[in-house]
Design brief:
This protein is 32% helix and 24% strand. The chain is an alpha/beta fold. The two termini are 32 Å apart. The structure holds iron/sulfur cluster.
């Protein structure tokens, strides 16, 4: 399917974002391309500073500008470029068709209004419902996202909810307009592990029920295994590997992905020692030459210092294509077939 195809929900193409700072130009996103279709979950994975959230903010049009600036690329929603369409149309799409869930629900909610009121406001403003009807819808949605005694709790204020319950309210807010696409930026990072799993399961269940596209941004490979269809791994503002989720877990083709996988506990690797990726994420004011991962890569050779690897299509030893797989590594074959 071509990315300009109107049946493709979201296609980000060759996106470039930079920040002008006192110390110089930070190249936060350097030619990122990905897509997500209706009913599909794409996880965008990377350490902090990899560009995953900046990409999402550029897609949503909420980049802090200045200092941030989209310097190139396209953000196609149903085949139309949101970066160049009239501002009013862009606002309509971003308000109604795409919703965003943030990490910090407490700061995204208004502390002096009850959650029922805030949820109801979505229906009053966007659907013109009466106060009473909007409140009923708010309670219904709170119930749907698993808030016990929803009718009574609709009167409570954000600080009266636990972190997990607040994140459920954020999910309810995002769902209130029945968007085609949700972008969730580290939606469970602030929660403890058990609650993380519950919130993630809820998100996955609703995504299937509403046949929405979901872009799940996370630094935690552990949370995406059961919910994502595909993963795009980012490093230093670029995508370095894409793959269907289970293939990526079984056989990564990029040493960075391998490093991430070796650093999380896994049931299928019980007894194996965990190892951290050596070194620190790169300074985006001074991205390493060639492959940006070379100072930390156990496989690095001289060519890695001079030549930046493109995203190679990844294949089996006998040349059989592996659909949906690509890796930006000169030595992907050694990694994949190790
Ligand atoms: Fe490592 Fe070289 Fe591959 Fe980069 S291109 S990931 S430095 S082996």
């Amino acid at each position: 399917m071509d990315s300009t195809d109107p049946t493709r929900l979201l296609a980000v193409r060759d996106l470039q974002v930079e920040f002008r700072t006192r110390d110089g130009v930070v190249k936060a996103v350097n030619g990122v391309s990905y897509h997500v279709d209706a009913g599909e979950t794409l996880a965008v994975l990377g350490e902090s500073g990899s560009g995953k959230s900046v990409t999402a903010h550029a897609v949503m049009g909420i980049l802090e500008s200045p200092p941030g600036r989209v310097t190139g690329g396209e953000v196609l929603f149903r085949g139309r470029d949101m970066l160049t369409m009239p501002a009013e149309e862009r606002r309509r799409i971003r308000g109604r068709k795409i919703a965003m869930i943030f990490q910090d629900a407490l700061s995204a909610l208004n502390p002096v209004l009850s959650v029922g009121y805030q949820l109801g406001e979505m229906f009053r403003v966007h659907q013109g419902l009466s106060r009473r009807a909007a409140r009923a819808k708010a309670v219904e949605l709170m119930d749907r996202v698993g808030i016990p005694a929803a009718a009574a709790r609709a009167l409570d204020y954000p600080h009266q909810f636990s972190g997990g319950m607040r994140q459920r309210i954020m999910i309810a807010m995002a769902l209130s307009l029945e968007p085609d696409l949700i972008i969730a930026d580290e939606p469970t990072t602030a929660l403890d592990v058990t609650v993380q799993a519950q919130v993630m399961d809820l998100l996955a269940e609703l995504q299937r029920e509403y046949t929405m596209g979901l872009v799940l941004i996370t630094h935690d490979l552990g949370v995406v295994a059961d919910v994502a269809d595909r993963i795009a791994v980012m490093y230093a503002g670029r995508i370095v590997e894409t793959a269907p989720v289970h293939e990526l877990y079984k056989r990564p083709a990029h040493p960075y992905t391998r490093g991430l996988l070796d650093s999380i506990p896994r049931l299928d690797r019980r007894g194996r020692e965990l190892s951290a990726i050596r070194g620190l994420p790169p300074n985006l004011l001074d991205i390493p030459s060639g492959c940006a991962f070379h100072p930390r890569c156990p496989r690095a050779q001289d060519v890695c210092i001079t030549d930046r690897p493109p995203l190679y299509a990844v294949a089996e030893r006998d040349g059989t294509e592996m659909p949906g797989r690509a890796a930006a590594c000169h030595f992907w074959k050694d990694e994949l077939h190790a």
